[in-house]
Amino acid sequence: MDIESLYMLHVLDEAYDRLKQEYLNSSVLGPVRLYVAKNDIDKEFWALFCALIDFQMPVKKILNPMLTGFVTWMEENGLKFIELIHDQELTKKAFNVFQWKTNGIVKTGFMHRFVKIDDIISLFQVFKKILENYGSLRTFIKETYNNSLHEKEPMEYVLAKLVKLLINYDGKPPLIPIRLTSPLKRLNLFMRWMVRPYPDLGLWDFIDKKYLLVSLDEGICRVFARAFSLKIGMNWNGVLKATYFLRKINPDDPVKYDYLFSRLYIMGYCTKDLARSKCYLCPLINICASSQIPIKPKARILSKREQEIFEKYLKAYKHEIDFFAIEYPLGEYSADAIIHKSNCENYIIEVENKLNYNAIGQVITYRFLYFKIHRKLAKPMIICSNAPKELKEACEIEQGIKVIEVSN
Question: Of 179, 198, 213, which residue is a domain's last?
Answer without folding.
Answer: 213
